[in-house]
Fold:
Amino acid sequence: MNDERPLPLMKTILKIALFALVAASQCVQARSDDVLRIVNRLRAPGGACASAAPLVVAHDALNATAARLARGESLDAALKSEGYRMSEVYVITLAGEGLHAQLETLLAGRYCAQISTPTLSAIGVHEDSNQIWIVLAAPFAPKVDMTRQQITERMLTLVNQARAQTRRCGDQTFGTARSLKWNETLENAASLHATDMAANNYFSHTGRDGSTSAQRVTRSGYRYRMIGENIAAGYMSPEQTVAGWLKSPAHCANLMNGMYTEMGVALAISATSTMGVYWVQLLGIPK
Structure:
């Protein structure tokens, strides 16, 4: 006959093991929270790394990213595995015995420039033996801090400045071209296409409905003799966008075409899209 008496002892052992596991987890969390408190104390007004930025916030994906770094993964691979999208990131790695006792002094002495960076607003921490990995990141949050009027004026200025100079676009040479005027109908057509690309996460001169730029401006009520379109994605300013077009032979040729007399430009932003910011420029000759 089997003896069932060891079972209560087995249950007790399992409970003890579970308690030890929970206690260890709580200890790791407490140490991570301690690192967070130290970083925020350094970053706060009056701290050794004082900045005007808000306090950093812990993020589970960054904690997991730090753990992957500890296992030897590259930063890019770790962030991709955790699905964390960022616009800026910095990793601090510290090693040695008694780290927690001297952590604040070490961070203040070596890493104030990173800790006080306002855009680095999220943090992940992992600790293993006598080593700590700290990941500071700026979450992917695309934005263009300009009003529509400011964008209109800046884009028109940049494009006309570019057209005022002779330029080589690929294997074509272009002389100076007359200044363009702004056209709101072209801007509206550009806005519709930029919004559609941002909302549906694609990047193409062809619309999701198969439309061409010519068809889209016609729908918007623009009557033309010739039409051209430039698109760009990922740029956070008019300066970057125009510079990108000028580096692309086809886009550059469009922009420098002396026959065009009018243009409209618009952008759309979506943090859930791949590129974040989508720009469309339409150039035309009206009938």
Remarks:
- The two ends are 102 Å apart (CA to CA).
